[in-house]
Amino acid sequence: MFKNILNRLLQAIVVLFVLFTVTFFLVKALPGGPFQSEKAIPQHIRARMEEQWGLHKSLPEQYGIMLKNYLTGNPGLSTRLEGREVTDVIAQAFPVSVQLGVVAMFVAVTIGIPAGCLAAAKKNSLIDTGSMAAAMIGICLPSFVIGPLLAEFFGRNLHWFPSMGWDRTNPSTWILPAVTLGLAYAAYISRLTRAGMLDTLSQDFVRTARAKGVPGLQIVFRHCLRGGLIPAVAYLGPAFAGIISGSVVIETVFQIPGLGRHFIKAIESRDAGMIMAPVLLFGSLIILANFVTDVLALWLNPRLRKSS
Amino acid sequence: MFRPIAVLALSTLLLASCQRETQVERANREKVLLVGNGDDPKALDPHLVTGVIESNVIRSVLEGLVADDPEKDATYRPGAATSWEHNADYTEWTFHLRPGATWSDGAPLTAHDFEFAYHRNLHPDLAAPYVEMLYFIKNAEAFNKGEIKDFKEVGIAVPDDYTLKVTLREPVPYLPGVTRHYSWFPVPKHVILQYGKMTDRHTKWTEPGNMVSNGPFVLKEWKLNDHLEVTRNPRYWDAATVKLNGIRFIPIENFYSETRAFLSGQLHTGYQVPPDLVDKLKAEYPKELHQEPYVGSAFIRINTTRPGLDNPKVRMALSLALDRKGLCDAVLKGYQPADTLTPQMGDYKPDPVVGSDPEKARKLLAEAGYPEGRGFPRYTLLIRSAGARTSAEALQAMWKQQLGILIDIQAKDFGSYISAQQSMNFDLAIAGWIGDYLDPSTFLLMWTKDNGNNNTGWASTKFESLLNEAAHQADPLQRLDKFRQAEHLLMDEQPIIPYAWQARNYLQRPEMKGWYPLLLDNHPWKAVYLDTP
Question: Which residues are listed as membrane-spanning (chain A) (predicted)?
Answer without folding.
Answer: 9-27, 98-121, 133-151, 171-189, 232-254, 274-300
